[in-house]
Amino acid sequence: MAGPRIGFACVWDHPNPQKTWSYTPWNLRNAMRQFGDVIDVGVEVPAKVQLGLKVLHARRRGGRFVTTWQQSRLTDAYFHWGLDRAVVASGCDVVVEIGDIAPVEKPFYLYQDLSFDLLLDAQDRHGVPLPFGLTRADIERRRDRQRGIYEKATGVLAMSHWFGQSLVDLSGLPPEKVHVIHPGRSSAATEPPPLPERAGPRRKLLLVGRGSFTGKGGDLTLAALEILRREVDPEITLTFAGPPEWPLETPVPDGVTFLGSIPREEVARLFDTHDLFVMPSRLEGFGIVFTEAMSRGLPCVGRDAYAMTEIIEPGVTGALISGDDPAELARVIAASLADDALYDNCAKRAPEVSSWYTWERAGRQVVDIVTGAATPSGRHAR
């Protein structure tokens, strides 16, 4: 293809690179290739090297062993070395990095949904536990490193307007360096079937979350389900999918079906067989799963925070809760299940959601932005 050569940098998961970050980099790269000359400059971590890094950075925290190898200085140095070599060998003109792997000599952009500034802010304001098994000092060090990379980057491709604004307010980026690129849907069918009928009584709740159970609000959802089954309708149920094993020490409660980790094709089918998607996340970078549910006419209940406020429109595509009160969540769920207008509105909005949240649109936007940086007359040219 004519135009600048774009290097695509990602630290791929092994042995299934397409599953990295819930398919996001894989889908974005494939979409970008429809609109530009995109080549891989990703960092490969051989299995023996990865094992050594994991063992070297194993720590006992919270009564269990965790490894912080992906956030260590040694890993940073390895990634920087590997990315530099790949960029030089490729002859690319501009680089798109998933996350903030390392600064490079070419113009480069970062594609992200969260920052370490936001993680610290979430802990300070809402008591959200720090992820990755890291201490606050670790996160502060990562924050300082990240800010240094932001300063050198040509721009940051933010997955939401909320995150984009936080880059300006919390991380100090100039607004002109921030570009909002909404992601596409990971479980989208090529030719989606007609939307299902969801006539009352509606009783089937759905939660799909691969991250932290409490981070996704799973504990709050279970508590609300208990209230709903006791005070509203004993036939209300919850289907939960995502983690490979049940995340609690207590048994799976009555009314809950736990599916474990399932393929994304099966996740897509769940949207058509349930009545309400519920995920009141305490920390959510974007929430692609909300757009997947809404594209099938399934209303969503989230939290009045993070990017959920720009995805879910109360009364049209779902509802938002304000805190951690199970009774509030139970009331919002009961009201949503009984709201015929909500289901009509969500079904009408489904084609619009489906047509906007596509990787084809996201890939085209990324290529348009970064190729402008790679030409001598580009606004961000170096």
Automatic annotation (TrEMBL):
Protein biosynthesis keyword on record: no
A Pfam family this chain is assigned to: Glycos_transf_1
Residue ranges annotated for the Glycosyl transferase family domain, each copy included: 201-352
Keywords, comma-separated and alphabetical: Transferase
PANTHER family hit by this protein: GLYCOSYLTRANSFERASE WBBK-RELATED
Descriptive protein name: Glycosyl transferase family 1 domain-containing protein
Organism: Luedemannella helvata
Higher taxonomy: Bacteria, Bacillati, Actinomycetota, Actinomycetes, Micromonosporales
